[in-house]
Every structure is written in structure tokens, then in C-alpha cells.
Design a protein that fits this description.
The protein is an alpha+beta fold and 330 residues long. The protein has 2 domains: 181 residues, Ribosomal Protein S5, domain 2 (2-Layer Sandwich); 131 residues, GHMP kinase, C-terminal domain (Alpha-Beta Plaits). Helix content is 41%, strand content 19%.
Length: 330
């Protein structure tokens, strides 16, 4: 199968996943394309990112970890366990969760040992939900339901209204193409046809909250201050060109998407990043875009020449995290 070609099998039902192969460690995710436009059912391309991960653990004297972090995580899990328990009692879920066991485990010191930064658009809550789902959703539960909707129902506690995509990517540990209710597994996208291009994250060194930014976006589109139809069309074209390995089209469209986000979604771009974003486009060093909801956390940068872009951001004293470099691009 050619790189980027869409596989035909879909994860619309839990029974299509071999649960025996699911590990206890859950990875971060990166939504490469589709943030915000997915609200209006555009395509989205999202991948697991193994640089960050997390797993459920019990705090004890023999474990090497940051005690304050573990205690804080445990406190949050206790609140979440009570939330799930109340929802389950009120029959809010169409599947069964052993919430009493979850509560008992949190009282024993259960926490989520994670390197995934919170408020950075890397799917920290998604990885947590995937871990809890795998451990506490009863195996006798109906397996013909929509896994994404189940995970979304569990993640709503953290985001108000979850799409379920973040925990799904972490749960199946595969790149996914999303379009409405249709989910397809795709091969890891390759951005480097000439082995010069690269993809990396830029650390804005500040966190953000998703809900107010989504609310702002919805208000702007409702009042026609943001043309979401244009965004949908452009976003879908970028994804299609990448998955069809039409690299010339892909790298022609990226600057347009980057410039559109810069002009139309500046509230989602930290002020200290704006100058570099502009220079990246003008000098054709890199084409930046939001990673998740933006507002802080990480920004994505696609570079026609990875080495040149790396030097560009090192000179600006901005920390970058490689996602795909020329050495692993092909």
C-alpha cells in the first residue's frame, strides 16, 4: 500500500479492536489538521505522538515520582470518579463502568503518571480517558455501540463538550482520518518526500483552556466574522493532498492555511508567536498553524527545510520538539 493511502477498515464499533493488544500506556495526540473546522464536519487528521505518554498507577513508598504531582492527580481523579458515579447512577451512559472500583482505587492512591503537558493541545485528558475506559468499562458492556461517543461522554467532564477524538486516538494508537461519524485508519503521514522537510512543535510556554476559545470561534462564525466554509474547503484540500501523496499541492496549500489562521484567528495565537508566524511565511522558512484549540500550548510548524527552520527558532530562543525530521521522514 502506498504511503498515506487510506485503509478501508473503520473503528465504528468497539468489537473491531483486539482488546488483548491494548497496552497500559497511552500516548499523546496531535491533530495535524481540522481543529475548529471539525465543528462543522470538516475532515480532521490526527495522530498519536509517542514523545509524551501516561499510565494509571498507585502511589506508594516504592515508587519514584513527584509526590505533589501524584497527590494532585489523585485529587482530580477522586472528583472525576464521583462525577462518573453520579452519571452512572442516573443512567447517563449506555454502557457499564465499574465506578465503585474506580472510587475504591482513587482512595488507595490511584493517579495518572503522565508526561503529557496539560493545556497544551496534546490530549492529556484524552490519554487519561482511554486508560480509564480500558480498565473500568465492564467487558460485558454492549460492544456494538459507537466507541467514539462513549469516550466523548466520559471526557465531557474536562471540556464541556468533547468530540471523543482525542481519547479514541490514544485508545487505538493509530493515525485516524475523521469525517463526521466516519473514522478511518491511515498510515503515518509522510511530510518529507525529498528528505529535507520536517514537522515540529513550538512551545509557547503558556497554557490555555479550550472551552472559551471554541465559544469565541462559534460566536465569530455565527456573526460571519470568520468564514468557516472557506476554512473547511481549504482544510479538506490540505488533508486530501497529503493522503494522496500530492506533495506539490500539499506544500502549495500550507502557506494559505497558515496565513488564513494568522489573519482570522489571532486570538488563538499567543502574541509572542505572531511575529515568528509572519516571518515564517514571508521567508518561506516554515508554515505555522494551531495545534488543537491554540491560545497557548504548542503550535505546529511545517518546514520545507527542517534544518533551516530549526536554526530560525533556535535564534529566536523558542523551544521546539521534533515530530518528524528528515532522518525519519521516509
Amino acid at each position: 500500500m502506498k504511503p498515506g493511502k487510506v485503509q478501508k477498515n473503520c473503528f465504528n464499533a468497539m468489537q473491531q479492536i483486539d482488546e488483548s493488544t491494548i497496552k497500559t500506556r497511552y500516548y499523546a495526540k496531535l491533530m495535524l489538521f481540522g481543529e475548529y473546522s471539525i465543528i462543522y464536519n470538516s475532515k480532521a487528521l490526527t495522530v498519536p505522538f509517542k514523545h509524551f505518554s501516561g499510565e494509571l498507577s498507585i502511589l506508594d513508598d516504592n515508587k519514584y515520582t513527584v509526590t505533589e504531582y501524584a497527590k494532585n492527580s489523585n485529587a482530580q481523579l477522586q472528583l472525576y470518579a464521583q462525577h462518573l458515579h453520579k452519571k452512572a447512577i442516573n443512567n447517563a451512559f449506555n454502557f457499564s463502568i465499574d465506578t465503585q472500583q474506580l472510587i475504591d482505587d482513587t482512595e488507595r492512591g490511584l493517579y495518572f503518571e503522565s508526561t503529557i503537558p496539560q493545556g497544551y493541545g496534546a490530549g492529556s485528558s484524552g490519554a487519561l480517558i482511554a486508560a480509564i475506559y480500558n480498565k473500568y468499562v465492564l467487558k460485558s458492556a454492549d460492544k456494538t455501540g459507537d466507541l467514539r461517543k462513549r469516550l466523548a461522554a466520559m471526557e465531557n467532564f474536562f471540556h464541556g463538550q468533547s468530540s471523543g477524538i482525542d481519547p479514541l486516538v490514544s485508545f487505538v494508537n493509530k493515525a485516524l482520518l475523521v469525517e463526521g461519524d466516519n473514522l478511518q485508519v491511515v498510515q503515518k503521514p509522510n511530510f518529507s518526500p525529498t528528505n529535507k522537510e520536517g514537522l515540529f512543535l513550538i512551545d509557547t510556554q503558556q497554557t490555555s483552556k479550550t472551552e472559551p476559545l471554541v465559544r469565541h470561534f462559534m460566536h465569530q462564525t455565527k456573526n460571519k466574522l470568520i468564514d468557516h466554509h472557506f476554512l473547511q474547503k481549504l482544510n479538506n484540500s490540505v488533508i486530501d493532498s497529503l493522503l494522496n501523496t500530492d506533495y506539490q499541492q500539499f506544500w502549495n496549500l500550507l502557506p494559505k492555511l497558515s496565513e488564513w489562521q494568522l489573519n482570522s484567528m489571532q486570538r488563538m495565537i499567543p502574541e509572542k508567536i505572531v511575529t515568528h508566524w509572519k516571518k515564517g511565511i514571508e521567508q518561506e522558512v516554515c508554515f505555522m498553524k494551531l495545534c488543537g484549540s491554540g491560545g497557548g500550548g504548542y503550535m505546529l510548524a511545517f518546514a520545507p527545510n527542517y534544518e533551516r527552520a530549526r536554526d530560525f527558532f533556535n535564534y529566536a530562543n523558542l523551544t521546539i520538539i521534533p515530530v518528524q525530521t528528515p532522518s525519519d521522514g521516509s
